[in-house]
Design a protein that fits this description.
mainly alpha; single chain; 0% strand
Length: 121
């Protein structure tokens, strides 16, 4: 229903940070996180529009049409939306870790190759 709103809120915050703290944003590749978040938000929003859960007229979210559906929507946002945001953030952290470790691994392999004797006994 509205699970895409949680990653959207995170994407808005990270976009603001990216625009204001450019040095930090480049260091931690915040643009990559923004691309992952905004891509997921757009895809989920299209999917929700496709299924009729989001409409172009008020109240925009069909779950808000009846007061009985609002707690269900908030529960979905708290569980599914938060889980998606955490999964995307963990993917970003994993990609950051890999990109920082790869040059070190390559350097270690090159050092090992240099230390090998040319003639094997």
């Amino acid at each position: 229903m509205a699970c895409f709103l949680v990653p959207m809120a995170l994407a808005i915050v990270t976009t603001i940070i990216q625009k204001t703290a450019r040095g930090l944003a480049e260091k931690v590749k915040l643009g990559l996180l923004n691309a992952l978040l905004w891509g997921g938000v757009i895809l989920l929003a299209v999917e929700h529009v496709w299924h009729g859960e989001v409409t172009p007229w008020p109240p925009y979210l069909t779950a808000m049409a009846t007061p009985a559906d609002i707690p269900i929507m908030l529960h979905e946002m708290a569980t599914i939306g938060t889980a998606m945001s955490v999964a995307v953030s963990l993917t970003w952290v994993t990609m950051l870790t890999i990109t920082q470790l790869m040059p070190k691994i390559v350097t270690l392999k090159e050092i090992k190759q240099v230390k090998k004797p040319l003639i094997q006994p």
